[in-house]
Design a protein that fits this description.
This protein is mostly helical. It is 47% helix and 0% strand. It has six helices and no strands.
């Protein structure tokens, strides 16, 4: 038993709190990253869906948290690997983002092949953190597709 002047279950008293609005950040993805950063691993999901993984990737890029998530990403990818597109569909752009942010070369190669083979034009990927180098390799590694 700990003795002394400690008071258990006492809420800390904070003064002069500053609220930081994070309106553009996905709340679920942000909470997962906060639990990870604070080593609350029981609160970190072992599996996430493609939408959540994409949102996590966006925040990992925005806040430069790649090292924080490195041990978790492989497990998350196992849960969504079956959604890697083999043809042009709406999942291609999120997978390009995920592969680029988490530096998964084999996945990037797979989605690049699909994109190059099936694209009939380009689309705007400015809402996703895809390194310009990925998009501007000569010959192009990724041909950003649109459906026509």
């Amino acid at each position: 038993m700990i003795e002394g002047g400690l008071t258990y279950n006492q809420q800390p008293r904070f003064q002069n709190l500053t609220e930081i609005p994070l309106h553009q950040d996905d709340p679920e993805a942000l909470l997962i990253l906060l639990h990870t950063a604070h080593s609350q691993f029981r609160k970190v999901p072992r599996k996430v869906d493609l939408k959540t993984l994409t949102q996590i990737a966006i925040l990992v890029d925005k806040y430069e948290l790649l090292e924080l998530t490195e041990l978790l990403v492989d497990n998350w990818l196992l849960g969504v690997n079956d959604t890697i597109p083999s043809e042009l569909n709406d999942d291609l752009q999120p997978w390009i983002c995920i592969a680029a942010v988490f530096e998964r070369e084999s996945i990037l190669q797979r989605v690049s092949e699909v994109s190059t083979r099936e694209s009939k034009g380009t689309f705007d990927a400015s809402n996703l953190p895809i390194d310009r180098q990925v998009l501007s390799n000569k010959p192009p590694l990724i041909a950003m597709p649109i459906k026509s």
